[in-house]
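User: Can you model how zinc ion sits in this protein?
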Amino acid sequence: MSGIDLQPLFSKESCFWCDGPMFDRETIEAYPELHQFRRHIKTRDHLVPLKDGGAGFTVPCCFNCNHAKGSLDPMEFRDKYRPDVPVEKVVQALLDAKLAHVAVAPRKKRVTKRRRVVR
Ligand SMILES: [Zn+2]
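Assistant: Here's the modeled complex, given as structure tokens:
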């Protein structure tokens, strides 16, 4: 690698899963020398897969981890691919996700059933 000091170019957030440094998309696009680090571009991972209702909550995630995780359940992904991530961290994020999810998608009011007329 050339003499570029990468440190100041890193995104402020590190990857939730591998804790690795990431680059913001704009940074990667601004520096052709960084194109080799495309797999470290910052993305957002829907901690809980969309198919399981995870819309509304994301964690910072490098492209690499996001790609590997796909639509796996977060704990399943952790056990299989990122066992170094403390279970507590995932649990805490899941708790946060639940709260965020409720905040984003408020419960629908129950539609009162029409009363059946008994004669
Ligand atoms: Zn990662």
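A couple of observations from the model: The first strand starts at residue 42 and ends at 45. Residues 15, 17-18, 20, 61-62, 64-65 surround zinc ion (CB under 6 Å).
User: Helpful, thanks.
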